[in-house]
Amino acid sequence: MPTRKKTYPHRSAKCRSSKKGALHRYPKWAWWVGGLSIIGLYVCLFYYFFVGPYGFRWRAIYGDAKYPDGYEIRGIDVSHYQGDIDWELLKTAMIEKCPVRFIMIKATEGSSRLDTNFKENFRNARDYGFIRGAYHFWSNKSSARAQAAFFLSKVHLLEGDLPPVLDVEYKPAQMSTEDFQQEILAWLHVVEDKYHVKPIIYTYYKFKQKYLNTPVFDDYPYWIAHYYVDKVEYKGKWKFWQHTDAGKLPGIKGHVDFNLYNGSYYDLRKLCIGGEEE
């Protein structure tokens, strides 16, 4: 005959009473303070890990395009986010009475992702008379050599094109700065060996100062992202400045990044592959 499990009602009641007492141990204002503190901590952590490092990306579509004075060589950068581009309209577009001279085009990301609009954008940019460039978006999920090999397999630059570009915006938290720098240099060296020109490094200026602030990286042309300022705060040398991503142009739906070149049109042509041989 099975034995029944004994129950002790007074024990469960006592337990419930203890829990109820714990809940009412603190006044209501203390619960409000605690709850608001947790929310505040969450907001701070979210900003620190997700907004702060990429703040220039988050503010973009809510700002107005700024046009820094003193520069005449203007350009844009595009990817599949711009959708289908009307190149007939774009070829006569002007930025502050200056023609669009160059277009940077997203090509690859990591070791396996090809931008869906790259081939069309890359071909049309040349056909419509723009100086074109192709950039690779760095990923922390695959090795530098694998990413370089993938980029070289998908992008075939010609004389007159800008040097290849490495877009690097974040570092793996678990990797030391020294190891991260060696990975970046590995990509740069592999691609440089292919085209015999130094690739362009794209990043935002605080990232450059924090993670790429060693003399070896100063040998590379620098494309700086720094929005909502009248002048670049970075004190080092730079070639390109992405000064807003709230630009508007005929032929492109929505917003597009505006860039400028720190030099003359002749200097820009000399920077291109084969330019030094002219």
What does this structure look like?
The chain is α/β, with parallel strands linked by helices and 278 residues long. Helix content is 36%, strand content 19%. It contains nine helices and ten strands. The protein has helices at residues 9-23, 28-51, 55-58, 87-90, 118-127, 144-154, 177-195, 205-211, 265-271; strands at 74-78, 94-95, 98-109, 113-114, 131-137, 165-167, 200-204, 222-225, 240-247, 256-261. An eight-stranded mixed beta barrel has the order 1-3-5-6-7-8-9-10, surrounded by four helices. Strand 2 (94-95) and strand 3 form a beta hairpin. Helix 6 (144-154) runs parallel beside helix 7. The chain is globular and about 75 Å long. It starts with 8 loop residues before the first helix and ends in a 7-residue tail after the last helix. The model is unreliable at 11-15 and 51-62 (pLDDT under 50).
Assembly context of the chains: single chain
Structural class: alpha/beta
Low-confidence stretches: 11-15, 51-62
Mean pLDDT score, rounded? 86
**Coarse shape:** globular
Following the backbone from N to C, one meets helices and strands in this order, namely: HHHEHEEEHEHEHEHEEEH
Largest beta-sheet details = 8 strands, mixed, barrel
Ends distance: 103 Å
Write down the Rg: 26 Å
Instruction: Compute the number of helices.
Output: 9
Strand content: 15-25%
Describe the secondary structure blueprint for this structure.
Elements: H1 9-23, H2 28-51, H3 55-58, E1 74-78, H4 87-90, E2 94-95, E3 98-109, E4 113-114, H5 118-127, E5 131-137, H6 144-154, E6 165-167, H7 177-195, E7 200-204, H8 205-211, E8 222-225, E9 240-247, E10 256-261, H9 265-271
Parallel strand pairs: 1-3, 3-5, 5-6, 6-7, 7-8, 8-9
Antiparallel strand pairs: 1-10, 2-3, 3-4, 9-10
